[in-house]
Amino acid sequence: MEESRYCRASRCFKTSRIFPTDVNNHNTLFGGKLMAYIDDIASISAAKHCRQSVVTASTDSVDFLQPIRPTDSVTLESFVTWTGTSSMEVFVKVMKEDLLSGERTIAATSFLTFVALGEDNRPVPVPGVIPESEEELKLHETAPQRAEMRVRRRQESKKLADFLTIAQPWD
Description:
By secondary structure, this protein is an alpha+beta fold. The protein has two helices and seven strands. The radius of gyration is 18 Å and the shape is globular.
């Protein structure tokens, strides 16, 4: 296995038009549709980085910053920003472009974590990541703080899951 790979080796792009079936009651892109786009492209970046099967371990954040309308196209850009032993943090930048004016803005950002799996479906080591651009360097240097928050959030989620009931209301 290679020791490290450049962020650019995992970079992916996806552009889509917004159709009437893609919008919610506010006539903006349905959040669940965008989240599906995000998970899809992030999984491709993760697999390209490690050249293994990958599974989504967490969607750490999706921040919806601007509404995406039917007059817009939406472009997602993703790449691996940081790695652990078998996990990878993937950043997804969502840009909207008004197809009539050409104006572009950042509509959303997201961080996800993926784990590489071997043929036995157990976690396997992944290569490190080498940032180059200013954007990649900033995301890479701030990744350890996000990793710490993920660990704390996961611990809290496990505590909450232990507290929650699994009984059905009709039981």
